[in-house]
Specification:
With about 230 residues, the chain is an alpha/beta fold. It is built from seven helices and ten strands. The strands form two sheets. A six-stranded mixed sheet has the order 6-7-8-3-9-10, sandwiched between helices. It has a four-stranded antiparallel sheet with strand order 2-1-4-5, covered by helices on one side. It is globular, with a radius of gyration of 18 Å.
C-alpha cells in the first residue's frame, strides 16, 4: 500500500531569530526525498519537528492526509536516524537485530565482514562500523517512513555505495527522507530534493537551482556558513 507524508505550516524561532518558515515537504512510498541546506539552515531541526522531539506551536504533519503529532511514539509509522549514536554501547548486535525485527543474514549479504560481530556489543565496533549497524537498523526496519540525518558522513567511502543500494531497495517498501552535506550522494539517490534557504523550502530540479538558492557556487563547491 502506498503512503504519503506531508509537512507544511512550520514556523520555528529561537529567541527573536526565525529559523524555519513557509516550509513544505512531501515524501511517499517508493521515493527518496533529499533535504539540502547550508550549515545552520534548519535541516536537523526540521527532522526533529517531524519526529516530534522538537516542539513548535506551528506545524502540520500528515500521514495519508491525517494529522500525526509525536512520530517518535509510532515506530511502525516513522523511524529516525539522528546524527549521533543512539544505540547503547552495551547492547549486543544480535539483540539489536531482534529488537528491530530485521534479518541479520540479509545484513551480512551487504556487509559480510560483520558476520564475526553477531555476539559482540556494538560498543566494541569502530565508530564507522557502529554507524553502519545503526543506519541499517533504521532503513531496513518495518516502518512506513524513515528519516536519515547525515548517513554518509561517518562511514568509509567503500561503504557509501552499499548504503545507497540498500536505500534504493528499501524505498520500494517505504518513504525515505535524507539530509547530508555530501550533496552529490543526495543528488544521485533522491527522486526529489528540497533546499532550505532563508528558512523556506524550495523544490529543485537540477544543480542550477542549488546555485540559484545559494547552496553551491558555480564551481559546485558549497558556500561556507555565514
Amino acid at each position: 500500500m502506498k503512503h504519503s507524508l506531508e509537512v507544511d505550516s512550520i514556523i520555528l524561532e529561537f529567541d527573536t531569530k526565525r529559523i524555519l518558515q513557509d516550509v513544505y515537504l512531501k515524501n511517499e512510498t517508493g521515493k527518496t526525498t533529499g533535504i539540502l541546506g547550508r550549515n545552520g539552515s534548519g535541516k536537523t531541526c526540521l527532522l526533529n519537528i517531524i519526529y516530534g522531539e522538537l516542539k513548535t506551536n506551528n506545524k502540520s504533519i500528515r500521514l495519508d492526509g491525517n494529522a500525526i503529532y509525536d512520530g517518535y511514539r509510532n515506530p511502525e509509522i516513522l523511524r529516525y536516524l539522528p546524527q549521533f549514536n543512539f544505540i547503547p554501547r552495551n547492547i549486543k548486535i544480535k539483540r539489536i537485530f531482534k529488537d528491530f525485527n530485521i534479518d541479520f543474514s540479509q545484513f551480512i549479504g551487504y556487509f559480510p565482514e560483520f558476520k564475526k560481530y553477531y555476539n559482540s556489543k556494538i560498543g566494541n565496533l569502530s565508530g564507522g562500523e557502529n554507524r553502519i549497524v545503526e543506519i541499517y537498523s533504521i532503513i531496513a526496519s518495518k516502518t512506513k517512513f524513515c528519516m536519515l540525518d547525515e548517513p554518509f558522513s561517518q562511514v568509509m567511502p567503500v561503504h557509501v555505495d552499499t548504503i545507497k543500494n540498500i536505500v534504493r531497495a528499501e524505498k520500494e517498501k517505504k518513504g525515505i527522507i535524507i539530509t547530508d552535506h555530501l550533496y552529490e550522494h543526495i543528488i544521485d539517490i533522491c527522486d526529489d530534493i528540497y533546499v532550505i534557504s532563508n528558512g523556506k523550502t524550495y523544490l529543485t530540479q537540477d544543480k542550477a537551482d542549488l546555485i540559484k538558492h545559494g547552496y553551491i557556487n558555480q564551481k559546485g563547491s558549497q558556500h561556507p556558513r555565514k
